[in-house]
């Protein structure tokens, strides 16, 4: 057992994704417990500063793959390059963020490397034999399954954003190993343009107040009431999966096993049944309020304050009362 832990470090416009830093921090802990080393793989052009930043998070080696231009598609070109690199160095563990890029790369890599993959893990541990224990919500999220890959290498997992703590570790003099990344492999996908996604004013992961909506919200017009309430309270709007599928909410607003983990002081869920896939993403909220027409809804078992009622009646009243209270305080 060499105890070599690798993390795929994602960056956009020379800024590392938080989930990559979260996994690196955990990766350092795992590498130390195995008496091994921690490496990061970075892909992109002109990333020397980013590579140095990775070292400041406790990385022993940064494998920086630099393509001839920025017009490459990760799902083909990075898979090819990473497969080669992994075959060359044979790490024990390879971890990626459960982001859209990670979710595309990881299964393709696992198939090429003929190894297993656990997706959307929310914890990682090491057992007495030095195997990686990959903890994943399973069977509708009702139980936490621990998955082990005892034979094949590398042991691969994607990790949900927001479930691990970021810890800087400047104790290392990590090496930065740059190599060119040829754009090998025929890609049926061509990058025509990159468009910056519009983001919320308040980030979901850092929001003190999260207003979340589910399938029960019913349509885009009703969804606007969640946006209005969040704006009034200085909070962020989150969603379960169905509103994202319906196009009322954006992918980055999804909370839960396949989405974000939130830790607000106040979480308010409207028209959400309380399936574990969603609840694992909100369980660290300090105070949970749920509004649902069904008194038997699962969310009522986990909330601090539940309202059995129709969100179409409750939301307008709530918004109106908050506005009224504010105008009275301001003396209008
Ligand atoms: C592998 C996997 C991963 C998944 N990952 C995620 C994830 O990360 N996040 C996630 O959210 N889901 C995820 N899901 C989906 C998840 O299992 C549930 O399907 C989803 O969370 C249900 O969303 P919901 O509560 O909005 O919808 P529903 O379960 O359909 O609940 C809608 C609720 O709205 C209530 N309602 C209806 N009308 C009103 C009204 N007018 N006023 C008030 N209440 C009303 C209903 O009583 C009902 O309880 C995943 C599923 C799988 C298989």
Question: What secondary-structure arrangement, pairings included, does this model have?
Answer:
Layout: E1 4-9, E2 11-12, E3 15-16, H1 18-34, E4 37-43, H2 48-55, E5 61-66, H3 74-89, E6 93-97, H4 100-113, E7 117-121, E8 123-126, E9 132-138, E10 143-147, E11 155-159, E12 175-180, E13 209-213, H5 220-233, E14 236-239, H6 241-246, E15 266-270, H7 276-279, E16 287-292, H8 299-302, E17 305-308, H9 311-329
Parallel strand pairs: 1-4, 1-6, 4-5, 5-12, 6-11, 7-11, 13-14, 13-15, 15-16, 16-17
Antiparallel strand pairs: 2-3, 8-9, 9-10
Helix-strand makeup class: alpha/beta
Number of domains: 2
Mean pLDDT: 92
Name of the CATH architecture of the largest domain = 3-Layer(aba) Sandwich
Which hetero ligands occur in this complex?
Answer: flavin-adenine dinucleotide
Largest sheet: 7 strands, parallel
Q: pLDDT below 50 for ≥5 consecutive residues: which ranges?
A: none
Strand order of the largest sheet: 7-11-6-1-4-5-12
Shape: elongated
CATH class descriptor of the largest domain: Alpha Beta
Oligomer description: single chain
Cα-atom Rg, whole angstroms? Answer: 22 Å
Name the CATH superfamily assignment of the largest domain. Answer: HUPs
Q: Which percent band covers the strand fraction?
A: 25-35%
